[in-house]
Design a protein that fits this description.
The chain is of the alpha/beta class. The chain has 2 domains: 4-91, 60s Ribosomal Protein L30, Chain: A (2-Layer Sandwich), CATH 3.30.1330; 99-252, SPOUT methyltransferase, trefoil knot domain (Alpha/beta knot). It is built from 9 helices and 10 strands. It has helices spanning 4-12, 16-22, 30-38, 71-77, 99-103, 116-128, 146-152, 166-173, 239-252; strands at 24-28, 43-48, 66-68, 86-91, 106-110, 133-136, 160-163, 180-189, 199-203, 220-223. The strands form 2 sheets. The protein has a 6-stranded parallel beta sheet, with helices on one face. A 4-stranded mixed beta sheet has the order 1-4-2-3. It starts with a helix and ends with a helix. The mean pLDDT is 93.
Length: 255
């Protein structure tokens, strides 16, 4: 059965400082846990109620430690209003960067994105459009925030998310054949712009957009036009929605 020490540990992982300290994060729900196990992320243990179906998780080639608990204890450690029957505690992995992969493909750069739902959704977008890397500024919301983990819907298992110094990263790769894209109101319409099959796509902060530090490093400014152009519409698009439109247009050109 779930011990008091385990309850204390898992509850503490709601906060970033304890996730950093223990190098652990929490995932909830069968599909999400199964996807993470499929990706070979190492689990510490799987907490479950008696009613949970854990037999299918045994197909993953890991030595899983299962800990049974009752519904009341599960509620204590869950971040969800309606807890699942399964909670997984996983070790935070080390993500490596292969320069050759980055230089030959598209990557997303997130400049101080703050909303957990936006980060999780952007990781799902990257997964859908076959984008391997999402690079985050150090002030972007923590990847292992429970709300981010849930919003990824398992895409985290297939996309590498790396926190780094974005200007330094850009300076390492930028060239005439490796453009840096960003969305701006004064940019060129994305539907008529020339788009490469490799480069960086910067998505800015929800309220401030792309920072003054990164703006000079953008070599290609893109604009997502509203429709019709002469009619008043919303002031801007949600950053994850804008990211989806941009990635979709890049991939459409490759069809």
């Amino acid at each position: 059965m779930l011990s008091k020490n385990q309850i204390k540990l898992i509850s503490s992982l709601q906060k970033k400082k304890f996730r950093d300290q223990h190098q652990l994060f929490v995932a909830e729900g069968y599909k999400l846990i199964s996807d993470l196990l499929e990706s070979k992320l190492e689990s510490k243990y799987i907490i479950h109620t008696k009613q949970a179906n854990i037999s299918d998780l045994l197909k993953h080639n890991q030595e899983l430690e299962f800990v049974e608990c009752d519904a009341s204890d599960l509620k204590k450690i869950s971040s969800l209003k309606t807890p699942s029957d399964l909670i997984g505690v996983f070790k935070i992995p080390c993500s490596d960067i292969k320069d050759s992969d980055v230089s030959q493909s598209l990557s997303i750069l997130l400049d101080d994105v703050q909303d957990p739902g936006n980060l999780g959704t952007i990781i799902r977008i990257a997964d859908w459009f076959g984008i391997q890397y999402v690079f985050c500024s150090k002030n972007t919301v923590d990847l292992y925030n429970p709300k981010v983990i849930q919003a990824t819907m398992g895409a985290l298992s297939r996309v590498k998310v790396i926190y780094t110094d974005l200007p330094q990263l850009i300076s390492q790769f930028i060239s005439t054949s490796f453009p840096v894209y960003g969305t701006f109101l004064e940019g060129e319409t994305i539907y008529t712009s020339k788009l490469n099959t490799q480069g960086f796509i910067i998505m800015g902060n929800e309220g401030k957009g792309i920072s003054s530090e990164l703006k000079p490093l953008v070599s290609k400014k893109l604009f997502i036009p509203n429709f019709p152009s002469n009619q008043a519409t919303s002031e801007s698009l949600n950053v994850s929605v804008a990211c989806s439109i941009v990635c979709s247009e890049f991939r459409r050109r490759q069809l």
